[in-house]
Amino acid sequence: MAVTESPLGLHRVLGESRHLPQAAARLDASGTCGNSELEISVQHLQVDASSLRQLREAHPGDLGAVRAAILDLVRERGKLHNPITNSGGMLTGTVRAVGSGYASPPAIGARVASLASLTLTPLRLDAMMLPGSINFSRRSGINGKRMLVG
């Protein structure tokens, strides 16, 4: 049975039809921009400090392994939600598409920053470039997209 698009993002929840997106284990980050969504071209990812600390401790001195762990989390869960720390992060990017039912949308190409945690919004990352030292910055260059439910 097809799920009707929900302004709360319930149509993006995979497997647990009674969960809101933040509590869900997995979200569907594929497909096109829905009627009540924005599609963001992700440029920078700000990983939550507790999540980054946990990943750095799990992979001491190995930035490549930290990067791979972040990409794996997003690939597996369809969102940036570290289940060990129950935290995510935020992003900056540009608006790529706007759903026809999105109230007061920003213009296509507008630069935006997410104020909602990435633990509750669909996210797909295609590539991730790490800064020179993960000790000095939690911000990483990204190529991907995020569906922001409005």
Descriptive overview:
The longest helix has 15 residues, at 63-77. The radius of gyration is 15 Å and the shape is globular. The protein has one domain (10-149). The protein has a five-stranded antiparallel beta sheet. It is built from two helices and five strands. The protein has helices at 49-58, 63-77, and strands spanning 37-47, 89-98, 111-113, 123-129, 139-149. The model is unreliable at 132-140 (pLDDT under 50). Helix 1 packs across helix 2.
Task: Offer a concise description of the structure.
With 150 residues, the protein is α+β, with helices and mostly antiparallel strands. The protein is built from two helices and five strands, in the order E-H-H-E-E-E-E. A five-stranded antiparallel beta sheet has the order 3-2-1-5-4.
Mean pLDDT: 83
Distance between the termini: 24 Å
Number of strands: 5
- Taken in chain order, the helices and strands follow as EHHEEEE
Number of domains: 1
Rg to the nearest angstrom? 15 Å
Number of helices: 2
Name the helicity range: 10-25%
* Largest sheet: spatial strand order: 3-2-1-5-4
- Main sheet overview: 5 strands, antiparallel
Instruction: Give the overall silhouette.
Output: globular
- Taken as a percent bin, the fraction of beta residues is 25-35%
Structural class: alpha+beta
Runs with pLDDT <50, length 5+? 132-140
